Amino acid sequence: MAVRITSPAFKANARQALADAPLQTSMRNLEANFIGRRRAATERLPEFEALRDAARDIKDHTLAHLDLYLTAFEDKVVQAGGHVHWAATAEDARTIVLDICKRLGARTATKGKSMISEEIALNEHLEQNGVTPVETDLGEYIIQLRGEMPSHIIAPAVHLTREQVEADFRRVHTHLPKERNLDEAATMLAEARGILRERFLAADVGITGANFLIAETGTSVIVTNEGNGDLTQTLPKAHIVLASIEKVVPTLEDATTLLRVLARSATGQEQAVYTTFSTGPRRAADPDGPGEYHVVLLDNGRSRMLGTPFQPMLRCIRCGACFNHCPVYQRVGGHAYGWVYGGPMGAVLTPTLIGIHQAGHLPNASTFCGRCEEVCPMRIPLPKMMRHWRERQFEKSQMPLAERYALDAWAYFARRGWLYRPASRLGVALLRLLAFGRGRLRWLPFAGGWTSQRDLPAPAGTTFQAAWKQHVKARRRAAR
Amino acid sequence: MNSQTPAQPRVGLFVTCLVDLMRPRVGFAAAKLLEDAGCSVEVPRQTCCGQPAFNAGDRATARDLARQVIEAFEPYDYVVVPSGSCAGMMKTHYVELFDDAEWQARAGRFSARTFELTSFLVDVLKVERIQAIYEGTVTYHDGCAGLRELGIKDQPRKLLSHVVGLTLAEMADTEACCGFGGAFSVKYPEISAAIADRKTANIAATGAPMVVAGDLGCLMHIAGRMQREGRQVQARHVAEMLAGMGHEPAIGEPDRS
Asked: Can you give the residue ranges of the Cysteine-rich domain (chain B) (predicted)?
């Protein structure tokens, strides 16, 4: 795979992220911006909780009949004059896209924001084969300039400060006057727009993702706030839609239900600025539109999740609410997770896609605070599924050895109360002695995981159970 | 007290392993509160609820410990736990551990009788009065499992409002995790501490000289981090405050008793 996976180095990545001052500033802004807006948007809509149930039910139903709805979708796309390509793997999907580009003699391809494109590492593949990919979503444009992966599924450049982006623009846009003022985000946006406008007009192929695929009509749906997706898909000779198989929903009505929870959960908007429905290529009477319309349906391991405890993960509509509310993501940002999908949804999905042997840290690096599940519009039990991954690691003995030994030793005592009680009394008495009369310990051998960051309170020196026994005895004596 | 509650409910107190080992006074505070509210309190032999095993992916150990707890507490009208985290494990997750019908039924009955302490006092016993005085301001941290698995939010605040002289100063983002997360705190210590730092800053910003919570795990983590940062804020379990023990040594303070 072209994209370098650093998930096994999650701990080192996280340590680096915690020491990265601009990143920490950006992450604070993320918290401030997304959480309050989502709350306000959901509180304004009395039926929001009922909508979440309806949204979950739509996806559960679709996943139970996924083959049916995917083939129905394919039939409708073909009827509308489009093409559907089935891609079992990331490599298949890359090949399909490149073949279309080559057939059309494409030199540049504009791109709307697509996480599937990131997942299959499409840009590298196109570049290596003589097609220049041009990201047109502002966030994606910025990280393309920097050669980075997105750090958030809806806000790819959220890890950057305005100053960092300004420096990148000055570094890359060398044809513009050096002394120009880029103090305002709006000025930078205008600069990017000006550059992208020419790229839109020059592109041979336009590639977008899809928020939903509608089986009833053979339609793909994208939501954006910049309108870049529309220019990407309307102007070139061909529009290629990259979508994973779980994006399909039965009807237009279903898609609108999901759209109502999507924008509110994602950005706190009632609706995204642009919601675009695309069905087939340009028809005879259409004033504009692409000459060809292709949908690449990517599996890449998802069908293996069907019928397993991980199936609910396929309900995900990629709103990013779980990222915004996750205390771990808030501190370490998306790049620490080491691949395309981070945050709580990535902690569940990434091990499926790149293997638990590589992504083992991700489902473990959670406090199980449950806030992700609380805000997930699709009610995906994310902590429960992270725990499933931990169960698989335990069963396959993929836990770090020290952790496994500690767990087994603790379990040995906890299962045997007759041994646990004297042993724990001895343990707390010893610990009390080690505190030398102080209230807490600043350091303790073999407890560096705790004491490296915090003091450990000295125990009372006896257990509650032992003290309670004495208390009951004393009470009985007093009553006699 | 509702109509189904026996005149003197027989309560089995599950103190949690952390209270048992680290801070027995929380167990005594819980027992006092329950006795003051008209319960008879007993402490059956116990080790741990099994949550560390459950969250480490070791279902077999979690199941064995669940069986052990269910068996030990079957004779009681109620099982009361001074921790939202352990109560959440016992009330919501035990039932997920068993495949056979007999144990599923036993776990179901156990779940129905199991309550977190403040929830039991307010929701079951309908306690309206607390015999405690504390002149001072405290802030309250919502533990995640209690909040999200058991819906505990108003109960501790309601009980604290009955403490004569006590003022509650709410912190910003009180529903945010403190970063403890059980084994997470030692497996990912730097991230855990970074999460705590936001929490401790919010605590300090209230100006309250004490933080109170319903889970000793969170409290040891928050107190330990504040002490490491040199913050002069005390930490106590909510049961201690409700039992009138707010002047005894706080977590991490020398205890000559």
From this structure: 11-91, 138-222
Average pLDDT, chain B: 96
Measured between its terminal Cα atoms, the distance across chain A in Å is 79
Q: Where are the domains of chain A?
A: 67-304, 406-479
CATH classification code of A67-304: 3.40.50.10420
Reported as a single tens digit per residue, the pLDDT across A282-292 is 999 999 999 99
Q: What's the N-to-C CA distance of chain B in angstroms? A: 36
Q: Which two three-digit tokens encode residue A388?
A: 């499933």
**ipTM of the complex, rounded to two decimals:** 0.96
**pLDDT at A2 exceeding the cut of 50:** no
d(CA A147, CA A142) in angstroms, rounded, equals 9
Instruction: Name B139's bridge partners.
Output: B211
pLDDT of the residue at B5: 66
Domain spans of chain B, in order of start: 10-124, 133-242
Structure tokens at A29: 């802004």
Tell me what the mean pLDDT of segment A334-342 comes to.
Answer: 98
Which chain B residues have a beta carbon less than 8 Å from that of A329? none
Q: Which two tokens stand for residue A213?
A: 């695929």
Q: Could you read off the pLDDT of B17-30 as tens digits, one per residue?
A: 999 999 999 999 99
Cβ-Cβ contacts under 8 Å for A171 (sequence gap 6 or more): A145
Q: Give residue-wise pLDDT tens across range A300-323.
A: 999 999 999 999 999 999 999 999
CATH assignment, B133-242: 3.40.50.11810
Nearest in space to A235 (alpha carbons), one of A118, A96, A111, A137: A111
pLDDT tens digits along A416-456: 999 999 999 999 999 999 999 999 999 998 899 999 999 99
Place of tokens 């220019």: A231
- Taking the C-alpha atoms of residue B186 and residue A313, their distance in angstroms, rounded to an integer, is 28
Residue with tokens 């840009």: A123
Chain A, 373 to 412: residues with Cβ < 8 Å from chain B are 373-374, 387, 389-395, 399, 403, 407, 410-411
Structure tokens at A401: 């050895």
Alpha helical stretches, state H, A235-290: 252-266
Residues of B in contact with A330 (CB under 8 A): 195
Residue A403, burial from CB neighbour count under 10 angstroms (0-12, 13-18, 19+): middle
Distance CA B14, CA B12 (A): 6
Asked whether the beta carbons of B118 and B154 are under 8 A apart, the reply is no
Q: Strand, helix or coil at A293?
A: strand
The answer to whether the CB of B253 falls within 8 A of the CB of B234 is: yes
**Per the CB < 8 Å rule, is A414 touching B47?**
yes
Residue A457: helix, strand or coil by DSSP? strand
Is residue B1 over pLDDT 60?
no
Contacts of B118 (CB under 8 A, 6+ apart): B152, B155, B156, B159, B214, B238, B242
B contacts of A427 (beta carbons < 8 Å): 21
Q: What share of chain B is helix, strand, coil (3-state, %, to 5)?
A: 50, 15, 35
pLDDT of residue A1: 39
Q: Does B66 touch chain A (CB under 8 A)?
A: no
Place of tokens 């795990």: B217
Q: By three-state DSSP, how is residue B42 classified?
A: strand
